[in-house]
Amino acid sequence: MKAWPKVALGELLRRSDESAVIDPAAEYHEVTIKLWGKGVVSRGKVTGSDVVSVRRVVRANHLILSKIDARNGAIGLVPPELDGAIVSNDFPSFKFRDPDQCDAAFMGWLVRSTPFVELCKAASEGTTNRVRIKEERFLDQQIALPPLPEQQALVARLDALAEKTRQVEAHLAAVERDAERLVRAYIFQPPNEQPTKRPMSELVSQRPPDVTVDGTVQYRFAGVYSFGRGVFPSVVKAGSEFAYERLSTVRAGDFTYPKLMAWEGALGVVPPECDGMVVSPEFPVFSLNTDEVLPELLDIYFRTPEIWPQLAERSGGTNIRRRRLQPSAFLSYEMPVPSMATQLKLREAHRLTQALKARHAAIREANAALLPAVLERVFARAD
């Protein structure tokens, strides 16, 4: 295969220095750049009156980079929806000198490759935590540039591959949503029965704290993610690092939540990997009456977004971010409980869904690795 000729970036790019004339009454998108080629996105909108330092305007299809994080892949093309957005001087942008020499879309793919990230590292200097890319050195770097028709052909193939990977991800997500809807139907619309609403006090029992804190002992805490993402292994802390005198041990199959964040979907059943960990008194812990309710039923029910507003209504406090769901309010909450026969069907459907997600995780990993591997192959051989 014929080698591509080398061209300095400065022959392809020219610094764009369009100053922003800020209207105090207008709103502007501010730009940020994700690491490792994940794209140029809006940081959010800001009112002109809140802009206190010099800003520049960026334009669609200009190349933009972060002086600090270009060496970590924070570089890309400005998307059309951010045309006219504003940036600080830490985000230099560049227009293309000649579109007949270098296709912007080709550069957009090139900058996502490992060889280009290495080029950015070579153009950076400074001490630890102060390493920044030097624009002159960056523009002096050379890349291998194929003829325009070959650039466009590569872009077409890479765009098609990217669309295929997006379709795979969308398909996996759709299948999982359908599977989760099927599982939830056993709670909210079980076949041939009407679930009985029962108070939580009939289904769970609160356990008091059982650990007396020793300042010399290390404790492994469990936490609960918001938005139905479940219980997870959290930090390890010495007893001397916190003020609580008592803690609660959690066991696999227990139910827990942080009082402060339950209204935001931070509730869940303790998974096996968190068995034996501890939580603070801000996390009430409940044992399940498994003759009446299976842990899978509780876990799925309280991960359902439509349920969280009901918990918010029971959470006390005047500040929306400081509302607490007290155990007494939780224990009086009523939830639909289908028959044990239906719960066992739910358990099996849930098991199959989790197995499906595990298989999908492997597919996702391979799917996510495909584009980077292709970029590595295409642009590494060009060096």
TrEMBL record:
SUPFAM superfamilies: DNA methylase specificity domain (SSF116734)
Flavoprotein is among the record's keywords: no
The entry's keywords: DNA-binding, Restriction system
GO biological process: DNA restriction-modification system
GO function terms (MF aspect): DNA binding
Position of the signal peptide: none
This protein's name: Uncharacterized protein
Species per Swiss-Prot/TrEMBL record: Zoogloea ramigera
